[in-house]
Amino acid sequence: MNTSALISSRVPSRFTIAIATASLALAFGSLSLRAAEPALQLKDNDVWVMAGDSITAQRLHTNYIEAFYRTRHPEWHLHFRNSGIGGNRTGNILARFDYDVAAWKPTIVSIELGMNDVNGTVEVYINGMKDLIARIRAIPAQPVLISSSPVDDGSIMNDWKGERCQKIHPFTEALKKLAIEENVVLVDQYHALIDLWGQNRRKGEALAVKNGAWPPKATPVPATPAATPATVAGGPTPAPAKKPEPPLAPSLIPLGGNPVHPGPVGQYNMAAVILEGLKADGEVSSATIDVAGKVVEVKGCKITEVSAKDGKLSFTRLDERGPWPILPMAKSALELLPETLKLSRYLLRVSGLADGEYHISINGKPAATVSAKDLAAGWNISTVFEGELADRSTKINGLIANLEGKLNTEWRAASKSKEEDKITAAQKAIDEAEGEIQKAIQPVPLRFEIAR
To answer: Is 171 helix (H, G, I), strand (E, B) or coil?
Structure first.
């Protein structure tokens, strides 16, 4: 797939030349080898509980995955519940399983752990995962295992910059072996992302060195206080000054957040890798129209009210499903991992246009400037981060953030305390919020105008 032809000029291009396409191909291309059978079985009215540690509790990549499936299946009523708590290991989730996982009556439970478990032993981690798989199946629900993400510290495979990132490797290998033994769906996001993020930071460092912006000037370390008569006599000894952690080099494309908890850009990378590992359907819709206004081919959409006059091609498009609503603030995630576009193939082809650049508006709002060559090859509308589609993405993600944040948290607190009146009130609020989401994800007619 020629992803470069699908990236709109509206996506910043200053970073792309430094990202190795080989590592990108590795990130997505080998995921099929890592995802164990059976595949995720998602259906109408499923309840998916996403359990994990602090990176799950952030409600970023988990919300992005939820937004993907909701817009890809607007005809379904899907339910997602966040069950992440910072610092958790397998034992913590087992301890809260009844009131914070099983109480939701899930049909799917994903477990995303490892970042904290590496402070223990592989044996404890795997035994805990075995127990969790058994508990999930007993509900009954489908278990899905997701490995820890890597630490964004510049590590690449076999050239580690931090101990924790190195430790995650054998834990992930053991988890993959367990998934095969238990016949459980597994997504290994660690190995799919470590070289991508590591090379991204190393190339950022190289550029900063070239520009004279790295390394930073050394900060003097405070001296250890001298001994006093009291300390010599056996009194308290002042603790030596702690040596500060060396600063991390800048990334070429910043992931946001911190090395353990990336921001939206890094977490869209995580969401894309997880969705690919779950074999998510990347098809949205496609339409082919010629310059004279003839509708040549459509798939998953309807094209009506076509007009071709005065050098302008106009039409109304109604899709059966929606593109992945990626937040505009995270559009550089597509630069870092262009294969993300495979998960949102929302295509428009226009044949017969004269060479040159064309302005495209959607519902009267500027959307993109695209060449005749790219429109003829197939322009992916998912690369639009302005106007009508940007507003849609922001609204859907905002509604999901409200559901998984305040409302989800209130339900969990009530479930833990077993206060039935509060559970009922919290569930009512969740039902109302999901009704708003269901309205927001429904496809609506979009009026396209293409002019030179």
So the answer is: helix
Helix (H) or strand (E) holding 207, with range, is helix 189-210
- Assess contact for 355 and 372: CB atoms under 8 A: yes
- Look up residue 187 and give its amino acid: V
Tokens encoding 317: 């498009």
CB 81 within 8 A of CB 408: yes
47-100 residue pLDDT tens: 999 999 999 999 999 999 999 999 999 999 999 999 999 999 999 999 999 999
Task: Compute the CA torsion angle 416, 421, 427, 430 (nearest 10 deg).
Answer: -100
Q: What tokens were used for 74?
A: 């607007």
Annotate 67-93 with b (16+ C-beta within 10 A) or e (fewer).
bbbbbbbbebebbbbbbbbeebbbebb
Q: In degrees rounded to 5, what are phi and psi of residue 88?
A: -70, 145
Residue 19 has pLDDT above 50, yes or no: no
Per-residue pLDDT tens digits for 232-286: 555 566 666 666 677 899 999 999 999 999 999 999 999 999 999 999 999 999 9
**Cα 330 from chain centroid?**
10
Alpha-carbon distance 141 to 181, whole Å? 18
Q: Are strands 142-146 and 108-112 parallel, antiparallel or unpaired?
A: parallel
Return the SS3 of 79. strand
pTM, full prediction:
0.90
Give exposure, 288-321, as e/b (b: 16+ Cβ within 10 Å): bbebeeeeeeeebbebeeeebeeeebbbebebeb
Helices (H) and strands (E) in the chain, counts: 16, 14
Q: Which of 316, 313, 422, 400 shows the shortest CA–CA distance to 359? A: 313
- Class of residue 413 by CB neighbours under 10 A (exposed 0-12, middle 13-18, buried 19+): middle
Instruction: Give the pLDDT band (50/70/90) at residue 38.
Output: confident
Domains, in order of start, for the chain = 3-205+250-277 (3.40.50.1110)
